[in-house]
Amino acid sequence: MGQNRAPAYILGVGLTKFIKPRGKVDYTELGFEAGIKALLDAGINYDDVDQGIACYCFGDSTCGQRVFYQFGMTKIPIVNVNNNCSTGSTGLAMAREKVSFGAADCVLVVGFEKMSAGSLKSAWADRTSPTGTTVEMMREVRGLTGAPGTAQMFGNAGREYMEKYGAEAKDFAEIARVNHAHSAKNPYSQFRDVYTLDEILSSPTLHEPLTKLQCCPTSDGGAAAVVVSEAFLAARPHLRSQAILIAGQCLATDAVSLFDRSSISLMGFDMSQYAAKTALEEAGVSASDVQVCELHDCFSANEMITLDALGLCEPGKAHEMVRRGDITYGGRCVVNPSGGLISKGHPLGATGIAQCAELCWQLRGWADNRLVKGAKVALQHNLGLGGAVVVTVYKRADGRSNVDIASGIDVGYNPAVEAQGFTRKQIERVRSRTSRSEWALGDTEKKVEARF
Known about the structure:
This protein is of the alpha/beta class. It has helices spanning 27-42, 63-68, 87-100, 132-142, 149-165, 169-183, 197-202, 230-234, 269-283, 300-309, 318-323, 340-344, 348-364, 424-430, 438-441, 444-451; strands spanning 8-15, 51-55, 78-81, 106-113, 205-207, 210-211, 221-229, 244-252, 292-294, 334-335, 378-384, 388-396. The strands form two sheets. The chain has a ten-stranded mixed sheet. Strands 5-6 form a two-stranded antiparallel sheet. Helix 6 (169-183) packs across helix 10 (300-309). The protein is globular.
């Protein structure tokens, strides 16, 4: 599989703050801000981009073109991707495929989401739901309650983990406590409050063992990444230390075990396990080599079962890993230094790319207020029910650990620890020099600048 694959690198990343979905910021602004930041970080102009990939779940067709045309109208292919909660990392996987097999030297991936407040709901009431068979299996095995559907699904997986392996409600709460604690140092997080274990346990129960503070919020936000080839990077040797190698990656879908009447299997455990095994093997590392991980913690229960699926603990021992403090600083592997979905937020199309950005900043040594010191191998897990999962292994292109801080393009601040904006001069530097349209840009630039 992928025997003749050429290397692909993340050269630049950019993020917006993740915010409550209140309709105040449009997707055009979110995509523009993230994309400009990624281009600045990569030190390139939009004219260098061969292809574009737009990632979102809630929006009309060709929202991607509406966002990308703000950078330039250079006739490049632009693809719009929707793969549920794994949309962002699916876009990254597609970009890597294009670069690794010679279809492009530089791909810009932009994820954005403008969501509705409240729990996730289907946009269509007149057709079959793609997760309908999953819901029916849950109904048959565990029954249905009045709780939000996803909370029931993942909560039931947590219940099964308790029944099979001896985990307790406080173990799931501890996962949330850790993630909330991590988020306090991430300037892009939607929530940065720190809670005690008792506060998390005593917050309103949605579906046992899950309480409100163990569940991710809906969010508006944007994230972007520039994926490049070895030839592209070789022409810019001054950027090699900041480039992050996609050392291994696997996009997978469900196995037949999805419907084996296990609530854990129903949440894509087997595809996560398969994707992790495949990505780690390609990267030539094992789970024990992973020092930092961004994991899809839409609910604390999913982090619990996924620690197991990724091989970060012995089978059935994820709760023991949590109890030992092995998911945070000073432990076995720092999981979700960004705060994870639980507190950072979850704008579906942007989430996977935001995970990538955090791990790039970690490996560069830039995330100095939350750095996992000495990290050389990073692991990303991004899951979407329905289903799809992407697991990615990252390493520095120069082979060093993050003790050696990577140099990079100076934007006037450290984007890993400060959520700031950009100047008009910087925008001019990265928008197309040959094929820009002020009509396509409209008032987006002014709106974005006003928020800074």
